[in-house]
Amino acid sequence: MIFYPFILAICCISLFLTACGDAELSTRQSVRPAAPVEVAAIERGLIRELRVFSGALEASASFPVSPKVSGLIEQIYVDIGDTVEQGAVVARLDNAEYKQALAKSQADLLVAQANLMEAESHLKIAQRAMERARVLRDRGVASEAEFDIAQSDLLAAQARLEVLRAQIQGAESAVQSARIQLGYTEVRAMWSGDASTRAVAERYADEGETLNALSPLLRIVDVDPLTGVFFVSEKDYPQLSVGQQVDLETDAYPGEIFTASIQRIAPVFQVSSRQARIEITVPNAELRLKPGMFVRAKVVVREVEQAQIVPDVALVTRSDSKGIFVVGQDGETARWRPVQTGVREGDRIQVIAEDLAGPVIVLGQQLVEDGSPISLVSSDLTE
């Protein structure tokens, strides 16, 4: 029995020490250290949503220059890269055969004209003979048969005259056709539109070769303005409209922006790619851009003025809710603010919420909860 008080004393001491330890642990847990965070300012201003599409430049007009008649190429006056004026002679074919054809048609016309003069003379003779036959018949000197013969000769002379007049028209037409054929041996660059000059893009034949009629000799293009072509998906299609501004970039001129505008939007999507063709007009007065260049087209599809903007790294998700942590008014605690997101531009994003104030935490959010103490390690507020 003398051991019971001793054991009871030991139990009491043990319970006292355990209670003290629990109290100390509870105190340590209630005093959390301040989490180190980095912050940034909440911007207010304009934000734009961009779409970037890959495409290529094409000539706004392109057509082959071909001779309208066949022949041997005697001379070509232009080559790739040369500027061509409207109506200029770009090549010449051997025209000896066509000159000979013109000379023959002119000779045929002279023969037809001579035959016409002879027919006119015969007609006058037939008319006089007819008149004499009428007078002699009326006097009873000539028979009715002789009068009929004179009348028949007159009608034949008139018919021959009409035939020869038609032959004259045919001969004149043949001469005109021969002149046109001879003119076609001078191959000219002709096009419609307001452009007074265009450029030679390709050359398909050389001097000394024989070309058939309508075989391509050169390809002429219009490079001011150019046409840019890119394709868009169903998601981006509703956000584009004719006249919308487009900023172009190309590897040929790093860092330089070329301004263009949407000219045409295809009303259908291609079955194979499920994309629609977009054409843009690209001014090119200095001729620096060339057909075939690869381009990146940037289009502003949405913009919001006076938006609340934060770095996209500030967004976090807690309990399936998107939001940001801002620095409380005391400057020492983090406050959770649920937000909705809007337009994104690069690494900046629009956030929609009422009464957003204070800097936003951009680094260290995983260490804090609503009301957690924080310490500012660094920020861009003082930069």
TrEMBL record:
Domain Multidrug resistance protein MdtA-like alpha-helical hairpin: 109-185
Gene3D superfamilies associated with the record: 2.40.30.170, 2.40.420.20, 2.40.50.100, Helix hairpin bin
Coiled-coil intervals, chain numbering: 116-181
Superkingdom, natural source: Bacteria
CusB-like beta-barrel domain boundaries: 232-299
Signal peptide: 1-19
Keywords assigned: Coiled coil, Signal
PANTHER family: HLYD FAMILY OF SECRETION PROTEINS, MULTIDRUG RESISTANCE PROTEIN MDTA
Cross-referenced NCBIfam families: RND_mfp
Family: Belongs to the membrane fusion protein (MFP) (TC 8.A.1) family.
Name by which UniProt lists this protein: Efflux RND transporter periplasmic adaptor subunit
UniProt source species: Thalassobacterium maritimum
